[in-house]
Amino acid sequence: MKHHALLSTAFGALVVCAIANTAAAPQVTRHQPAPQWNARAAAGYLDGRMEWWLHWPNAQRDHDTSCVSCHTALPYALARPALHAVLAERESAAPERAMLAHVVKRVGMWREVEPFYPDQTRGLPKSSESRGTEAVLNALVLATRDASTGTLSDEGRQAFANMWALQFTAGDSKGAWAWLNFHYEPWEATESAYYGAALAALAVGTAPGGYASSPDIQDRVKMLRDYLQKTVDGERLFNRLTVLWASSRLPNLVTADQQRAIVDAAAALQQADGGWTTSALGTWKRVDGTTLETASDGFATGLTALVFQQTGAHGDRTAKALAWLATHQDPATGQWLAASLNKKRDPATDIGKFMSDAATAYAVLALTEAHDKHGQ
Length: 376
Description:
Elements (H helix, E strand, L loop, with lengths): L8 H7 L23 H17 L4 E2 L3 E2 L6 H7 L2 H5 L7 H15 L10 H4 L3 H22 L6 H12 L26 H15 L11 H14 L5 H11 L8 H12 L30 H14 L3 H13 L26 H21 L2
Antiparallel strand pairs: 1-2
């Protein structure tokens, strides 16, 4: 996430106060103070979930590392740094440091570590999919970390080198990467390669020190831009919102007309309470035949509010979305809720919390962005 300016000590004391729950969302305009919410509780939830992920046997990989999941680890890596200034933290949280250490280790041992899912145990073409996915995620994680320093680290540059080496240079996927497909929506499914390419663009645009303008990557960036712009009009709204987010960091990924079309499509789906539901961001169908939830949730609302803020679109709609987020944080756990698109899951279980992990991270990103823009 983009580097947040250091907030004042006075604001740090105010923002962590949870507001009382009310029956209706407060009437907020873009000129009023940013909504208040419990940032410390959100950090506690995210840290707890990352700590669990790092020690969950299914997440373990060789050389004492763990995989970077699209539902828990990546959203954590994007959102947790945004809380540092809000909470006046002098150093990263322990789970954050551990997660980053795993990423750095795998980047440095790129030719030695096994893919997340080797062909030999998971079948073709999982090694290629794993490498492409991990290369993009590693670059984004380290670019986000380095953004706070203003300098791209050596391991950050190595992560990008690993990423560019795996970019397709021919065929229909020219400009993109092989991407994991376990038929898990919305991140690891048939249409997720576009999402992965959008994350690569986000990584390039996030990297500090003018990396996006480096002469030696311009041919690669052009292929990436061409790929993203070529099919954006036919992509599902989730992918289109992601590339619009990336375009706020790396210009000219989409045209002005395409940007307006994406924003208008999302605005039309805002619910009466000010939120969005993830089930409306694509054409999804659960494998167990259960009905998808249609109530507003933290993931869709956080993502859309963040994109609207980044593009300066629909200020009144954005304000309503931020108000929804401020009043729908679970006071007991600090999390925001969202439900699986793949099957009905028990939200009290660790696996059942995956979508809420992402929801909490994106709610944090949107709310910290709002505080940053208000200059508080």
